[in-house]
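Entry for the shared binder. Reason: the reviewer on the internal report wants the predicted structure included alongside the sequence.
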Amino acid sequence: MIIFKDKLDGISKKVIVMEITGKEEMLKHLPDRPKFILKLYLLQVILIMIISVIILFILDLLPRFLPSIRWLASLEPYIPFIGSLFWILGGLTIVHVVWRKRDKLIARDKRTAFQKSVKYSFTGIPLVFGGIIHGFLPVSWLATKIFSFSDPQKPLTNLFETSIGKIIASVAGNPNYNDMIPRIIFSVLFLILAVVNILRTIFVLGINNASMLYVYYPEESKIVDKKIYSIVRHPLYVSVYLIAISVVISNFSVFSIGISIIFAACFSYHIFGIEEKELIERFGDDFRKYRKTTPALIIHPKNWGNFIRFLIGREF
């Protein structure tokens, strides 16, 4: 944190600037890129996520745009699942290039190896998140508001998009049941928790760790088992699953639950089949011991207090 004084109209004011840790370490390994490259990467991530969600939404509506195509109409209930699965798997496949090309890029020129690979991270990750953000969309409601579409062509589509609570209430003889407000409240709470954890993890533990810099420069890395890492091995990925929970609650439908399960399953493979495998190669028995004592993603109830302290910026 940098604190300095600024004078404005004769009044001395304190200005606090929060500096992201690890920024200099990351820029050091981007030797041929301008210093504002991280801002461009952030813009890239945001744009890819927005474009991804728009494309997935349009794909959801293709059967209503082209009602004369029968095979497309028959796929209508399943297109949201297929679209998100394709997007999430595609994004993770791009991210995995960081590992697949590592040895080749390092052998060619270790100085610029990370610089040449980082583009895959900042392309694949937003594609993955576009796939899960897709689960927040109330597709039929948006279709009616934006394009004035009528009901979906297939009754199963409407069933998949309807809140499970509302379906149960209707079967029980209460068709006027509406759980939208509590769903939105709890979904937003989990989403806020996820976003705060992402920001705190990046600011405290460094963008260099989040960007997988040490996959290419393992000699500069070390096992950190203090602070948030003392209670969970992958604090940044905790937010990934909090977002998945938020998606489930947002609509509490077959649609949102299915997309969240797809997302969680694909990301779990990435964590345990790719990242932790590399960490074992890098740290050996030290990481194996750390893995035995510290959970990967689920924070033990006795550590919830410490997790809250971390989120609000207090030491523990």
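Summary line for the report: Residues 22-311 form one domain.
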